[in-house]
Amino acid sequence: MADWIMWLIAAGVVVGLELFTGTFYLLMIAIGLLAGALLAFMRVDLPGQMLAAAVVGIVATVLLRRSRYGRTEKQDAASDPNINMDVGQSINVPAWQDGTARVMYRGAMWDVELAPNAAPVPGVFRIVEVRGSRLIVGA
Hints:
The protein is α+β, with helices and mostly antiparallel strands. Helices cover 41% and strands 22% of the residues. It is built from three helices and five strands; from the N terminus they run H-H-H-E-E-E-E-E. It has helices spanning 3-21, 25-41, 46-66; strands spanning 90-93, 100-105, 108-114, 123-131, 134-138. The chain has a five-stranded mixed beta sheet, with no helix packed on it. Helix 1 (3-21) packs antiparallel against helix 2 (25-41) and helix 2 (25-41) runs antiparallel to helix 3 (46-66). The longest helix has 21 residues, at 46-66. The protein is rod-shaped, with a radius of gyration of 27 Å.
């Protein structure tokens, strides 16, 4: 069996494993293995193939890590609308007292606090964060 076929089989196995991980890092390693297959097809010796596969795999992994797909942004659960369904909802605050208020929201009374840079005027506010039983609202 030719060397380039072995590289392609290895790349296929790694792509198959990638389907179980949910990340793109094994896919970058598979790209490196494809580079090794290409050099094997061009009849470059085995150390050259291995070197090219390693370099391409490392470079692809580093580029992935620096891209927006490789970054892991941790957001506070209290202000993440994907976790807390109250974030982003609107509430009406009829009156403020020292930057706090009590309002009816979803059938219960809630303590409401103003977010920084928000004016304490009566009106409709958007929930930006939930801290326990306290809603933090902004304009």
